[in-house]
Amino acid sequence: MTNLVQTIRGDxxxxxxxxxxxxxxxxxxxxxxxxxxxxxxxxxSQHYLIQxxxxxxxxxxxxxxxxxxxxxxxxxxxxxxxxVSVIALVYTKIWGLEINEARRWIGIPWINxxxxxxxxxxxxxxxxxxxxxxxxxxxxxxFKQAFMPLIAPVLVICGLIISDDLSTAVILFATCIxxxxxxxxxxxxxxxxxxxxxxxxxFIFMLGQFFPEHIRVETWISxxxxxxxxxxxxxxxxxxxxxxGEFLGVGPGNSIQKNYLPFAYADYIYAIICEExxxxxxxxxxxxxxxxxxxxxxxxxxxxxxxxxxxxYGLCLNxxxxxxxxxxxxxxxxxxxxxxLPLVSMGGTSMLFTCVSLGIILSVSRFVQEARMKKLVLxxxxxxxxxxx
Length: 389
Fold this sequence. Notes:
This protein is 73% helix and 4% strand. The chain starts with a helix and ends with a helix. The chain has helices at 2-7, 12-32, 34-40, 47-68, 72-76, 78-95, 117-135, 143-162, 166-182, 187-210, 217-229, 233-245, 269-301, 306-330, 349-388; strands at 97-99, 102-108, 113-116. It has one domain (2-388). The chain has a three-stranded antiparallel sheet. It contains 15 helices and three strands. α7 packs parallel to α9 (166-182), α8 (143-162) packs parallel to α10 and α12 packs across α13. The mean pLDDT is 86. The protein is mostly helical.
């Protein structure tokens, strides 16, 4: 085990953050699913724990594989990944499985599992955008040559996602806007992008009035009404859970609200963590995501290639934005979104694609570290040569 830790390169703090979040996931999911066990699994209290452990194990393999690849391979595959993302989203819209009144999944034959194609599409557009921004830096200020080829792909992906998953589309759009700002796109172009996104939303909202079976406008309206009137059942149970936790929490496995809070193992897992581990546990989770953002910020400032810097930061921002959107729902700062807490909520595709993102981030950090080591070695050789002369 010690040898493995020593051989793993890249940012070890990011590795540690991922491990701690996965441990928190096992503890929280095991507790939050206890009320489901006797209804669905004939009293097997270990079922969901083992299932989550399997996903984490598979996620660890995925992270390591992506970490071992050189991140520049994603630049070469960016267009293909983007096209596959669009095809997958269109396929989902037409032939996807409808679960909880939303068509976000496609079934995997033989293993009775589903994939949420928007998770893959998030990766696709971030990789595509990072490659496009890095390639167009010489004329990034040009509206026709640089900005227009960037805006269309973002609007296409977000437009295909928004009808069944508004929150994911908003988080992804915010990530892309931030990447454009980092990529030195003019502020007036970014404002134009925001305006285009607003008109796209209004257009889809109006379409939803005529095709409510395809666009979840009623769900959007009801969630906003519940948020502003503070009358939603989920909101009430989440508040009670957080209030019960106080400073130190009621202890691991002792949550009461997990028996009443819908989707306590996914959308509202942060409320269960706050109830069982108190304010300390809640702050620790927030601190881990902030630490991830901080470490990625440091890393990208040292990255020698623009593509690697934008790619790693885009993937990190998407994880952190989603995390804080999930937390904001639990503490009643925004309407309910249906977003999971990355690496913590019980999940399948969400967990795996988050691990892909982490693997790519760690791949960038590995080559940043190796580039710095080579630079140090060369500088030492030059100093030795000078001293010899």
